[in-house]
Specification:
Helices cover 31% and strands 24% of the residues. The protein contains 7 helices and 16 strands. Helix 1 (54-68) runs parallel beside helix 7 (275-293) and helix 4 packs across helix 5 (178-201). The radius of gyration is 19 Å and the shape is globular.
């Protein structure tokens, strides 16, 4: 396995932003270079230890799903750009298996969340109000219970350092306009349904997921960012699912559970992770990729 990448060190291009996982660079006027690192965050804190291979898994799964959805919606990938013209050999090596060239689009200020099961913030919202993002849910639902139909529960993408906030569909209309809001809702639910049906054949339940979208100069909606990865979705092993309990998942929950055993106050800097926790987390990500893609 290649050396884990905590942060890209590319000096041939202007760096625009470092997120929790991705490093973004300007590639000319019309493109971005997006490098998916092996960083892992928990409780909104980036931990000091990378998870080997995590970035490659996220990259591969996103490419897999975008290819499956290419007939439904365009995406931000642009494979026509030759990175060798822009980067040094050492920088190209950093990008191997973990970077994409993307068209520069205007990102919408809304995370498009689809939920098929009652878990996470949706469960908390339901307990408090009997609804999720203003959508009434039948009484008597259990934790992790399957909803009769998937629901669209958008969130406002908060400025850096603040938490995203669940919003109603009406709020989404105010943010992006009625036509685009309906388009985002419809394609979000369609992608979720199609992905869920496929994943069930591979032994995985997709409890919920978030998509991000952008528009080009003509106003055409594009699928951007990461798609149906363990970082953007809850993947549950179908053979271990039962309502009433929080099922195990193919993501960083094992790390969160470990951190909960510490006296850490959940503020930066984050604690170091023991090697067994790193290894198990890396294996969990790889297993999700293997089940879904066969590779």
């Amino acid at each position: 396995m290649t050396t884990p990448l905590h942060e890209a060190t590319i000096t041939s291009l202007p760096k625009l932003h470092s997120g929790k996982v991705r490093d973004l660079y300007a590639l000319g006027n019309d493109h971005l270079l997006i490098v998916t690192s092996d960083r892992l965050s928990a409780f909104d804190v980036i931990l000091p230890d990378p998870i080997p291979g995590k970035g490659a898994v996220l990259n591969a799964l996103t490419a897999f799903w975008m290819a499956r959805f290419s007939s439904l919606i365009p995406n931000h990938f642009d494979t026509s750009v030759d990175l060798a013209r822009w980067l040094t050999p050492a920088e190209l090596a950093q990008c191997a298996g973990r970077a994409v060239v993307a068209k520069k689009l205007k990102a919408l200020p809304v995370e498009a969340v689809a939920r098929g099961y009652l878990i996470g913030s949706g469960w908390k919202d339901y307990q408090a109000t009997g609804a999720v993002c203003g959508i009434p849910i039948p009484k008597g639902m259990e934790l992790a219970g399957r909803l009769a139909e998937p629901i669209f529960t958008p969130a406002f993408k908060a400025p850096k350092g603040e938490h995203d906030a669940n919003i109603s569909f009406e709020d989404t209309v105010k943010l992006v306009g009625e036509k685009l809001a309906h388009q985002v809702r419809d394609i979000t639910l369609r992608l979720y349904r199609e992905a869920s049906e496929f994943a069930r054949t591979r032994g995985i339940i997709i409890a919920d997921t978030k998509f991000e979208f952008g528009v080009d100069a003509a106003g055409t909606l594009h699928l951007i960012d990461e798609v149906l990865t363990p970082d953007s979705s809850r993947f549950w092993p179908a053979d271990q699912y039962q309502p009433g309990i929080s099922p195990p998942s193919f993501d960083k929950q094992y790390v969160r559970d470990y951190l909960e055993t510490l006296t850490w106050n959940k503020t930066a800097p984050g604690p170091a992770l023991p090697e067994p926790v790193i290894a198990r987390t890396a294996a969990t990500y790889r297993e999700a990729q293997r089940l879904l893609t066969g590779h």
